[in-house]
Design goal:
Blueprint (H helix, E strand, L loop, with lengths): L1 H12 L2 E3 L2 E6 L2 E8 L2 E7 L5 H13 L1 H4 L1 E7 L2 E6 L8 H17 L14 E6 L3 E5 H20 L3 H24 L6 H16 L8 H27 L4 H9 L8 H27 L6 E2 L5
Antiparallel strand pairs: 1-2, 2-3, 3-4, 4-6, 5-6, 7-8, 7-9
Helix pairs in contact: 1-4, 6-7, 6-8, 7-8, 7-10, 8-9, 8-10
The structure holds zinc ion.
Length: about 300
């Protein structure tokens, strides 16, 4: 919805889009507009505003809040954040574009022209990051690009699979704790599978494990071993609490029901949730590994 909306807004204002953001210069002022169901946010790069300019803008916003559908306005140099919503009328893409055009026209009367958000130099243009846009000059752009490249290089040389494996094992051992606690409370909570996935992958990165292809089998192997161990630990403490004595007695209790209502069912659910948790976390780990979070470009389509 918001991507479609961004395209509509961009078309109405003659600017471009990057993902769900419509962005570009309107009357020399750089706008980033995001429109989601009945709300919108406008981030305007205005550099340093004088006290008079800011109070003029606030007065204008106050007088026109109904026609602009304005909910709130915040100034955080060099950005002016404008929030629109639907309290006065349904905020459509067309209305969001109309408000942006009116604001741009007003800012022009105050002589406001956008400049580099980083150093304040004029002659800036948009730079696209993974999901966001900034108005910066060529010098700042090159500096940021170089910094991103260095960060990527550093990521590639640090870390090893062995360290990652040791980290995941440590995380797995920590992840057994919730199983024991839920076991003591007399219930098997599959949620522990989720927690286990988190502690395994978190510790993998804390131990500076290498983010690469082999990370997946390493994490999955450790997760399976420790989830099974967690379920057994949980049943073990439940057995203790129910008064089974001696290792032999507890083991007989654990294996007394080998159907889906017994320990096999818990293992299946535990693994399922661990797998779901791991899937979500590994996706973000690979996003980081691919360097997409560090990507910066002058081209909106890249
Ligand atoms: Zn700059």
């Amino acid at each position: 919805m918001s991507k479609h909306s961004a395209r509509k807004i961009a078309k109405a204002l003659g600017i471009e889009t990057s993902g769900a953001v419509a962005c570009g210069c309107i009357n020399g002022v750089f706008f980033c507009i995001q429109n989601d169901a009945f709300t919108a946010s406008l981030t305007i790069t205005v550099k340093e505003l004088s006290m008079e300019q800011l109070s003029d803008i606030k007065a204008y916003a106050g007088q026109n809040k109904k026609s602009l559908l304005l909910r709130d306005l915040q100034y955080d140099a060099p950005y002016l954040h404008i929030f629109l919503d639907s309290r006065y009328a349904a905020l459509t893409a067309k209305r969001a574009a109309g408000s942006a055009a009116s604001l741009a026209a007003f800012l022009q009367t105050l002589g406001i022209v956008s400049a580099c958000a980083s150093c304040g130099k004029s002659a800036a243009s948009p730079a696209f990051y993974g999901g966001s846009v900034a108005f910066i000059c060529d010098e700042c752009y090159e500096l940021q690009k170089e910094a991103a490249g260095n960060a990527m290089e550093e990521r590639n040389v640090t870390g090893s699979y062995l360290k990652g494996f040791l980290g995941a094992v440590t995380g797995g051992a920590i992840g057994i704790i919730p199983w024991v606690i839920f076991g003591l409370l007399g219930r098997i909570a599959a949620l522990s599978g989720f927690i286990m996935a988190y502690t395994c992958i978190k510790m993998y990165t804390v131990f500076r494990g290498k983010i690469g292809k082999a990370m997946i089998p390493i994490v999955i192997f450790v997760l399976i071993c420790f989830t099974v161990a967690g379920v057994f630990a949980s049943w073990f403490v439940t057995g203790l609490q129910e008064g089974y004595l001696g290792i032999g007695g507890i083991i007989r209790f654990i294996f007394s029901d080998l159907t889906i209502t017994g320990i096999p069912g818990d293992i299946i659910i535990g693994l399922l949730l661990a797998g779901l948790g791991a899937f979500a976390m590994l996706r973000s780990a690979f996003y980081t590994a691919s360097g997409k979070d560090l990507r910066i470009s002058r081209d909106a389509s890249k």
